Amino acid sequence: SQQGEEDPQALSIQEGENATMNCSYKTSINNLQWYRQNSGRGLVHLILIRSNEREKHSGRLRVTLDTSKKSSSLLITASRAADTASYFCATDRGSSNTGKLIFGQGTTLQVKP
Amino acid sequence: ETGVTQTPRHLVMGMTNKKSLKCEQHLGHNAMYWYKQSAKKPLELMFVYNFKEQTENNSVPSRFSPECPNSSHLFLHLHTLQPEDSALYLCASSLATGTSGNEQFFGPGTRLTVL
């Protein structure tokens, strides 16, 4: 079954607005990561939050993690047209630490100029 | 540029062909991965190599055969594929499995079409 599930599946906003994407997961994790993918290209790592952290910032990105609810959110502030992409959460599970990341289906973000 | 390159970027092959995908990383990493990304499906992990040893095979059909001759290179040998194998194949690398914060660096992918 799917570990990470994002919502919404698609999001369309105007440039300058904030975009919020959510991710839910099912099992315990070591950390949760967010990646961006431009159409038909590889994924780019954005930010990693560990299971003992609650919030993390990187530039215009803010990530929160609620392990009690098994959920995370990614906030992109003051969005730009260049932020148009698909965004994926990925979980690095607990004890085994095999390097295996479980990806969600992603949120497709469109930022209109 | 993420430091991970993949060739070819596009590949069209018949079901009876044999082809290989190549991945190279210039990051000094020791773990390498193959993923399959199909339309409307989440990214699927196929194989994991750590220090040239395969540590994960996610129930991948034998028509996909990986090879990792050293920590910088990873191949995916393809033979007698099916049309449903058409997808974007992504290679990634990381410092090593078992390390804290397993951030992965992805190549641009090979778009494979099986006719």
Total number of strands of chain B: 11
Question: What is the CA-atom radius of gyration of chain A, in angstroms?
Answer: 13 Å
Helix-strand makeup class of chain A = mainly beta
Number of domains of chain A: 1
Indicate the CATH class of chain A: Mainly Beta
The CATH superfamily label of chain A reads Immunoglobulins
Largest sheet of chain B: 7 strands, mixed
The shape of chain A is globular
Which structural class is indicated by helix and strand composition of chain B? mainly beta
Count of helix runs of chain B: 0
Largest sheet of chain A: 6 strands, mixed
Largest interface: A-B, 27 and 32 residues
Characterise this structure.
With 113 residues, chain A is mainly β. In chain A, 0% of the residues lie in helices and 58% in strands. Chain A has a single domain (5-112), classed as Immunoglobulins (Immunoglobulin-like). Chain A contains no helices and eleven strands. In chain A, β6 (55-58) and β7 (61-66) form a beta hairpin. Chain A is globular, with a radius of gyration of 13 Å. The model of chain A has no long low-confidence stretch (mean pLDDT 90). In chain B, strands 2, 4, 5, 6, 9, 10 and 11 form a seven-stranded mixed sheet that branches. Chain B has strands at residues 4-7, 10-13, 18-25, 31-37, 44-50, 53-57, 64-70, 73-79, 87-94, 105-106, 110-114. In chain B, a hairpin with a 2-residue loop joins β5 and β6. Chain B has no helices and eleven strands. Chain B is mostly beta strands and 115 residues long. Classes of the chains: A mainly beta (113), B mainly beta (115).
